[in-house]
Specification:
Oligomer: homodimer
Largest sheet of chain A: none
Number of strands of chain A: 0
CATH class of chain A: Mainly Alpha
Number of helices of chain A: 4
Shape of chain A: elongated
Helix content of chain A: over 70%
Radius of gyration of chain A: 15 Å
Number of domains of chain A: 1
């Protein structure tokens, strides 16, 4: 039980960091109303990849992988929507 | 064995997509010599998070998590180096 908790700690720390990492990007994009330097192809491939991680997390019953990728998906989808909407306004 | 291979397929597909996703970003940053819209805080938090995923992947013996995060680390570290170097040149 303690061994499992120790492993989960790194999983949750990893999940926390790679999830909250996209909040500063979302805030910056919202503030500057610009995401020209952010690659559209990257966002699309990354979002499809996150969906695959969610399926993988379900299959191996990994809560850290599930939680991390669902929230990361929401943030990146928001960045994608902002990027497209700001581009249309130009 | 077949069951394991089926699960690993999603893991490897997820790994492939969330890894190659950063190649277009690296290429775009290299071509435009600009990454002003890419958040520095995001890159730093994401890179530290990737290191934690690598530790987690080792602990749960997940090859897809390990491979994905090591390559993603290399790409994002390169984007960070380019961003800092282009900012200094301005």
């Amino acid at each position: 039980m303690n061994h499992l908790n120790y492993i989960d700690f790194f999983g949750f720390l990893a999940a926390l960091l790679t999830t909250i990492a996209f909040l500063p990007q979302l805030y910056k994009t919202w503030q500057t109303k610009s995401a020209d330097d952010v690659s559209l192809v990257m966002l699309i491939l990354f979002i499809i990849g996150l969906l695959c991680w969610i399926i993988y997390g379900l299959k191996i019953n990994s809560i850290p992988i599930l939680v991390a990728n669902i929230i990361t998906f929401i943030f990146n989808f928001s960045i994608l929507v902002l990027k497209i909407s700001y581009r249309k306004n130009k």
